[in-house]
Amino acid sequence: SEQSSTVSQAWFGFQFSLGFLTVFRTQLAYSRYWEGATLMGRIRGQWFNATSNLFAFCSPKDEKKEQVDHFQQYLVRLVSMLHCSALQQIADVAAEGFEILNVDGVDAAGLKFLDDNPEERCFILLQWIQRHIMDAQGSGVLSAPPPIISRVFQEFGNGIVHIQDAEKLTSIKFPFPYAQ
Hints:
Elements: H1 2-56, H2 65-90, H3 108-116, H4 121-139, H5 146-171, H6 176-179
Helix pairs in contact: 1-2, 1-5, 2-4, 4-5
């Protein structure tokens, strides 16, 4: 009876330890999952907000209509490419075939430059977007004052910071002891 009591206590201790480790591992994995999902939602939301603000800041003047249309269409293509590049940077899957609207308006040399610098695509596209915004501000396509437009730069920049945070979740793997 003393031996069965010892075995019973050992068995209980083993079950408790295994249950505790399983719950701990599951909680850690769940936390990482929601952190990634939250960051991706923030990125999309910030970039959508920045893009919609730029649409709202466009000049309502009839003589600027064609320039405004070009600005908006090219901006949306660049943001689409930026989001795709962000997903490719973060994704931990073999086939990274994310869709974009299209590349109309982006010259072949620019596309080649993006292809030649896959690790820097998000930064390159961010610079293109910022240059596009500044050109539009200078030509009168954007009618908001510079301090208001600077908020758009902040939104795009915050999205890039969140990409770096999300990338940590895929580059720093789930700890091996917990995975076992």
